[in-house]
User: Fold this.
Amino acid sequence: MDMNVFRGIVALILLLLFVGLVIWVYGKKRKGLYEKAAYMAVEDDDGDSDPGARP
Assistant:
């Protein structure tokens, strides 16, 4: 097996892994999780996590 064939096979495997990861991350099953995470930073907390913060 030539070194260039080996490099091509490795590149193809990495490309397929990347495409699979993108499909998994942006799949419809995970949309709710990402929407919930998107609002975590702006949700109002009941507890006072930073006592020195202004109201």
In short: The chain has a mean pLDDT of 84. The CA atoms of residues 28 and 35 lie 11 Å apart.
